[in-house]
Amino acid sequence: ADPATGFSVYPGNTNTLVIGTRRYAEVLRESGGVMPEFVNPKYANSEKTKFKAPTRLECMMEDYPKLLRSEDSVGWASFDRWASFSPCKNSLVEAKAKAE
């Protein structure tokens, strides 16, 4: 975290992208539609011996710029928390435990 603000120096996102569709189509043709993938298991216990749900391959939308050329423009915007929609991704049991 940034010691001056307490926030990450690499801000998160609200899973919203603004993409030029013409360039996006070119990137899809160039890459064959292939995005970098990873496995992100969700464990049910601290020993990491039991899965919450089946694990699947995922890709991050933040990886799209890695497919762009150096001359392509990439940027980001940061908004105050009150101006964003922040859905809860926890179950009721997990949310209660985190609040306690």
Explain what you see.
It is a single chain. The protein has 100 residues and is mostly helical. 19% of the residues lie in helices and 4% in strands. It is built from two helices and two strands, in the order αββα. The chain has helices at residues 21-31, 92-99, and strands at residues 38-39, 57-58. A two-stranded antiparallel ribbon has the order 1-2. The longest helix has 11 residues, at 21-31. The protein is extended. The two termini are 24 Å apart.
Briefly say what this structure is:
The protein has 100 residues and is mainly alpha-helical. The protein has helices at residues 21-31, 92-99; strands at residues 38-39, 57-58.
How would you summarize the topology of this molecule?
Blueprint: H1 21-31, E1 38-39, E2 57-58, H2 92-99
Antiparallel strand pairs: 1-2
Question: How many DSSP H or I helices?
Answer: 2
Mean pLDDT: 83
Globally, the shape reads extended
Could you give the count of β-strands?
2
Can you tell me the residue ranges where pLDDT is under 50 for at least 5 consecutive residues? none
